[in-house]
Design a protein that fits this description.
Distance between the termini: 32 Å
Strand order of the largest sheet: 1-2-6-7-8-9-10-11
Shape: globular
Strand content: 15-25%
Number of helices: 11
Order of helices and strands: HEHEEEEHHEHEHEHEHHEHEH
Bound molecules: magnesium ion
Helix content: 40-55%
Structural class: alpha/beta
Largest sheet: 8 strands, parallel, barrel
Oligomer: single chain
Number of strands: 11
């Protein structure tokens, strides 16, 4: 009897360990390759949640009047994100007919869902602007009680340092930079690297290095099955993709 119990414990532990080791899916700019959706739209966030993505990524700018809005490029319909007001930008429509969302609208929607909110702060025009944006993001998140649902990413090393400094201790913060080694990331206080697939294929050893240092590895943007398989085989923790449904199906077969 005791022997059976030990065997069962070993089996359960193995299953749990394997499950936790499986890569998690992050929808890049939400799940937008579907009818009625668009990149960085509120629908894209809802769709990512509806297929049970671990997380949904989106991009944040700060407008000329200090508001936070969700969009990828530095200009949209000819309007500069940093030089236009929130009113000007949020009157513009996305490909699915939605107005460009504010961060508040995005997070309020996220509050009703389960998926992690992977917030990318774009590189802003000055360090002062980045500090102001990070302060406002952290305060807004706290006011909505979403601290445990957030992950922060940025190409800006300064913005990353500010997230590490200002977000509650333990909040996942990842750098998107290709120039930072796992040792650099650890020194900054990052939770890990969010590397491009190209960088990771050039430095596959960084995956194990991050793991050895107690950090995680995210990779972007992985859209082909071949590359998804490479990332899974190399034990990447999070895979950011424009094809979240396809990646989930692939992982479910394993
Ligand atoms: Mg992004």
């Amino acid at each position: 009897m005791k022997k059976h119990l030990i065997l069962l414990t070993i089996m359960i532990t193995t299953v749990v360990t394997n499950l936790s080791a499986q890569a998690q899916v992050i929808a890049h700019r939400g799940y937008w390759k579907i009818d009625g959706s668009a990149q960085n739209s509120i629908v894209a966030l809802q769709k990512a949640d509806s297929i049970a993505c671990y997380g949904s990524e989106f991009d944040v700018w700060m407008t000329a009047d200090g508001e936070l809005v969700v969009n990828h490029d530095g200009t949209f319909h000819g309007k500069s994100m940093e030089d236009s007001t929130a009113e000007e930008l949020t009157s513009l429509t996305l490909k699915n007919g939605e107005n460009m969302p504010t961060l508040l609208q995005y997070l309020e929607t996220g509050a009703k869902l389960k998926t992690k909110l992977v917030l990318e702060l774009k590189k802003l025009s000055s360090p002062e602007a980045e500090t102001e944006a990070v302060e406002k993001i952290v305060a807004l998140v706290a006011s909505l009680g979403l601290q445990d649902r957030m992950e922060y990413i940025s190409f800006s090393r300064f913005a990353i340092e500010e997230f590490v400094r200002l977000a509650p201790k333990g909040t996942p913060v990842y750098s998107l930079s290709s120039n930072l080694t796992p040792a650099n990331l650890k020194a900054i206080g990052c939770s890990g690297g969010d590397y491009s697939l190209k960088v990771l294929k050039n430095h596959p050893e960084w995956i194990e290095e991050c793991h050895r240092m107690g950090m995680k590895v995210n990779v972007w943007t992985v859209n082909s099955v071949e590359n998804m398989e490479w990332c899974i085989a190399h034990k990447v923790d999070y895979i950011t993709t424009d094809e979240p449904a396809e990646l989930l199906e692939l992982l479910n077969k394993k």
